[in-house]
Write a structure and sequence with these properties.
By secondary structure, the chain is of the alpha+beta class. 22% of the residues lie in helices and 30% in strands.
Length: 366
């Protein structure tokens, strides 16, 4: 196995600050050997080490650990992740993909290059038991709680606007959890602890399954100050239905003459009925296209309200603005579900991605 090629036929994206390769794709790439020897993990580590200069990390790879190998039809994906001073780094997946003959064709890199050296696990003052007590206090509205995992991680803070859904009185215990978390954040601010987006923290990452009522939570507690960083609702509340193009009218009809100006009835006839999954809890009795993996958000003009109804039925003609919301939600949610659950890449953009399907002066961004 040789180092990666930077030839024009290789599709490459780079980190804006470090210039390290973030994604590399070249299904025509061939190493010197017809088929590399060794296990998938060994082959992955070999190419990452031999391409260390391109990825801006140490050739020894002593801060990159093996996670798992996912075998699919005609491919193998090797998943690795980063550690910092022997502490796992949250959302730091490195994925190396081989074809069915063991030849490299793509790499995805989410290594964190900007973790400050001053971040030191020796400064953690809160132990696991203390962090668990905080989590249990926050989740006291659930009568039964089971801790699934608790580990110290390096966590890059980000604001999670509306990532916790839009539940109302229908989910009062959930609202009590979020209210308790909000009160703790107020106390933290008054004590001078204000997490900054993009900054790194040593945090206890606690996952809890709850009963009476049912719930699933992720609680992140700063291991230095003891303040709560995030409380994230992992539950998936509802599903609905929609009509979308899947993938597009030309493919489904076989008619290559279809254009934007074709008869509306013809184009509408190419919509497929689909389920929309992972929707947040109802708000004011209505379901919206906002869920665990995707949410509609106003980013730029024009301002167009996202659709809402009590039955979760998002059935719109193709030239209706709301059709773009249905398209964006369905396809992004399906892809996110594939990445998170089928591939098992649970730390790759595992949050509700904000989307403005009508942004850019009303352009079709779906």
């Amino acid at each position: 196995m040789t180092a990666l090629s930077e030839a024009p036929e290789s599709r490459i994206t780079r980190d804006d600050h470090s210039d390290a390769i973030r994604t590399w794709f070249n299904p025509e790439f061939r190493s010197e050997e017809a088929k590399a020897d060794g296990t998938p993990e060994e082959r992955a580590r070999q190419v990452l080490a031999e391409s260390a200069q391109l990825f801006k990390w140490k050739k020894s790879l002593d801060d990159i650990v093996d996670e798992r190998v996912i075998a699919g039809p005609g491919s193998e994906s090797v998943r690795l992740s980063q550690t910092f001073k022997k502490v796992p780094v949250d959302s730091s997946d490195i994925v190396v993909n081989f074809d069915d003959e063991g030849r490299l064709h793509s790499i995805y890199n989410d290594f964190h290059y900007d973790i400050p050296r001053s971040l030191d696990p020796k400064n953690a003052k809160l132990n696991e038991d203390a962090a668990l007590r905080i989590a249990h206090e926050l989740l006291a509205s659930h009568k039964k709680r089971e801790v699934i995992s608790a580990e110290l991680v390096v966590y890059q803070y980000r604001e999670l606007r509306e990532n916790n859904g839009k539940g109302g009185h229908e989910h009062a215990p959930r609202e009590r959890v979020l209210a308790a978390a909000a009160l703790r954040r107020v106390d933290a601010v008054e004590g001078g602890f204000v997490p900054q987006p993009g900054s790194y923290y040593l945090a206890w990452d606690i996952r809890v399954l709850a009963q009476n009522p049912r719930g699933a939570w992720r609680v992140l507690v700063d291991a230095v100050s003891g303040h709560v960083l995030q409380v994230i609702d992992l539950s998936q509340y509802a599903s609905g239905t929609a009509k979308v193009f899947d993938p597009n009218p030309i493919v489904t009809s076989g008619d290559t003459t279809l254009r934007h100006g074709s008869a509306a009835a013809t184009i509408n006839g190419q919509r497929a009925s689909v389920s929309v999954e992972h929707l947040d809890a109802p708000s004011g009795g209505n379901l919206r296209l906002r869920g665990s993996f995707v949410r509609m958000q106003e980013e730029e003009a024009p301002s167009i309200a996202d659709p809402a109804n009590s039955t979760g039925t998002f059935d719109f003609n193709w030239d209706d603005n709301s059709f773009l919301d249905a398209m964006a939600y369905f396809h992004l949610d399906r892809f996110q579900d594939y990445v998170q659950n089928t591939l098992g890449l649970t730390n790759v953009a595992n949050y509700a991605i904000p989307v403005d399907p009508q942004g850019l002066s009303g352009a079709d961004n779906s």
